[in-house]
Specification:
By secondary structure, this protein is an alpha/beta fold. It is built from ten helices and nine strands. The strands form two sheets. Strands 3-2-1-4-5-9-6 form a seven-stranded mixed β-sheet, sandwiched between helices. Strands 7-8 form a two-stranded antiparallel ribbon. It binds S-adenosylmethionine.
């Protein structure tokens, strides 16, 4: 991801915004004493928003470009951002242990295979009585699945891209609701609630530009082709999505996918 892609991502986050709007405050309340940490904050919109309701808000992401963008655009006196990985953040930032009353993580966990380690890190960063809100993309996802009506199938059989994608490994990892709940309990969380919202048709896409922004952050096949062809594969993927995405009751295209929402409390 380069800085112009971070900016494109930030401009085209309607899908993420719809997710927060629908679920965050339904599951978690924030108060002015809260210290919040966002696991995988991207360009910082959620951190910035929550900082207005909380005492302090931190966000971290493994992408330097996302963090640079967040630092520049979403700054406030009680906000800070770091580069870190959700899988080993306590090794790089041990002082985060037990420091936060609320943790959020939105649209990140489907990229991580070892969710147990991430859940353990979330648990360890929370103070006693702290809560975490996790939202990520569930098992059914038209951009990431392997069925013949899903994007990976189109790309891996495309005359221009199949050669480059021979070694492609689908790094999309989703668990069922039951598996998530049981993993969260196994790392120590006392109370765990969750829901699988399926299929989510609220994520309206109003323009091809917006769609291109979503595709650029969700389609990791792009990294498998040489630099000079990346905008071409992004364009092909965007055109496929534009043609194949369904239309919702408002007459807009939307990404067909499930959403997993989880709330867990450290007793
Ligand atoms: C779809 S974006 C979501 C960003 C933000 N949470 C939001 O709601 O807009 C996914 C983000 O996860 C980050 N990410 C993926 N794997 C990560 C990891 N192992 N550690 C930290 N961040 C990660 C990516 O760099 C990207 O910024």
């Amino acid at each position: 991801m380069n800085s112009s892609e971070a900016s494109l991502y930030s401009k085209n986050r309607r899908m993420m915004e719809a997710g927060y709007r629908m679920y965050l405050h339904k599951y978690m309340s924030i108060n002015d004493n809260d210290k919040i940490l966002d696991f995988g904050c991207g360009t910082g919109e959620l951190v910035y928003r929550l900082s207005k309701e909380a005492k302090l808000a931190f966000g971290f992401d493994k992408s330097k470009e996302m963090i640079e963008f967040a630092r520049q655009i979403h700054k406030a006196t009680n906000v800070s951002y770091e580069i870190a990985d959700i899988s080993n953040c306590l090794e790089t930032h041990p002082h985060w242990k037990g420091k936060f009353s609320k943790i959020v993580s939105a649209y990140v966990l489907h990229w991580v295979k070892n969710k147990r380690q991430v859940f353990q890190n979330i648990y360890d960063c929370l103070s006693e009585g702290g809560e975490c809100f996790i939202l990520y993309v569930g098992p059914n996802n038209q951009l990431r699945g392997n069925n013949d009506d899903e994007l990976p199938y189109y790309l891996k059989n495309h005359i221009k891209w199949k050669h480059h994608l021979k070694g492609y490994e689908n790094k999309y990892y989703s668990l069922t609701l039951k598996e998530n709940v049981s993993l969260l309990k196994s790392v120590g969380f006392g109370e765990v609630k969750g829901h699988l919202h399926t299929p989510c048709d609220e994520h309206d896409i109003f323009s091809k530009d917006e769609l291109r922004g979503c595709v650029s952050s969700l389609v990791d096949q792009i990294e498998y082709v040489p630099e000079q062809y990346r905008s071409e594969i992004l364009q092909d993927a965007t055109e496929w999505c534009f043609k194949n995405f369904p239309v919702n009751s408002r007459g807009n295209k939307y990404i067909r996918h499930d959403t997993l929402v989880l709330l867990a409390k450290k007793n």
